[in-house]
Each structure stands twice: as structure tokens, then as C-alpha cells.
Amino acid sequence: MEHITSTPTAKAPSERFTGDVYLNPIETPSAPAHLVAALVRFTPGARTNWHSHVKGQTLYITDGVGLVGTRDGDVALASAGETVKCPAGEEHWHGATDTTLMAHIAMLVGDESGDGTTWLEPVTDEQYATALKSADR
Residue 49: inside a domain, yes or no? Predict the structure, then answer.
């Protein structure tokens, strides 16, 4: 058994996120499981860049209300206690609404080379505004 008493909060890198986003790592990929998990907190309007995961990603919303958007324009509005699953290879983004913070536990399975995430360009303000309008609020 390993008891980890705390992990320091870090500001998310601006080359992968828009707005103020904070990370607390929970688990980093290591054999044999290669689980990656983190508590991620988004202030209103903050979001990830477009990205994908080689083995998919599961997002469990712990607080607030968030959006998860895909390249084909699908948008999920998710609240605390809800889960959104993004399949392997699907380009997507996630973040808070424009008025409410959102926190989630992000979980994925990496491999020997890392977490299997491919980071892409930022979600534009126009794409974000369109997602807000299409979300059922």
C-alpha cells in the first residue's frame, strides 16, 4: 500500500489550456496499469485545447457545470455527479461554462511512452460561443 497525503496544485500550461486551469495529479502512468488521473479545475470560460487520447478518456464531474465538445459539433453539458466518456482517437475539448466553474477527475490509460494524449490547437472563442449556445442550459 502507498498512502500519498497530498499533491501540489499546479497551474495548467497555457500552450494546452485557455483561461485559468489548475491541476492536482492523482496517478501517473506506470506499469502494469498505466492509469493517468488528475483533478482538474476550470474557472468560468476556461477550457482545454482540442486533443485526443489513444485509448480514450473518462471525465467525472465533481463540481460545477462543464462542457465537452467534439469536432462534429456535439456538445455535452455535464454537472456534478455525471460522467462523460470520450472514445479512443476522438478529438474533443472540455471546460467550464461561461458563468460557472467546473472541476472533474480526468482518467485515461497510457502506455510505456506516456499518457497517449495528442494535443492540438486551442478552441477558438467562436467555437466556444457556439458550444455554449448549443448546450441545453
Answer: yes
Q: For residue 3, which amino acid is it?
A: H
Kindly state whether residue 2 falls inside one of the protein's structural domains: no
Helix (H, G, I), strand (E, B) or coil at 86: strand
Taking the alpha carbons of 91, 97, 98, 104 in that order, is the dihedral positive or negative?
negative
CA 19 to chain centre: 13
Provide the whole-model pTM.
0.93
- Domain region containing 73: 10-134
Q: Are 47 and 128 in contact (CB under 8 A)?
A: yes
Residue with cell 449556445: 133
Asked if the structure places residue 82 within a domain, the reply is yes
- Whole-angstrom Cα distance, residue 14 to residue 101? 18
Q: Is 16 among the domain residues?
A: yes
CATH at residue 14:
2.60.120.10
Taking only the tens of pLDDT, the chain with its 137 residues reads 988 888 899 999 999 999 999 999 998 877 788 899 999 999 999 999 999 999 999 999 999 999 999 999 999 999 999 999 999 999 999 999 999 999 999 999 987 778 899 999 999 999 999 999 998 65
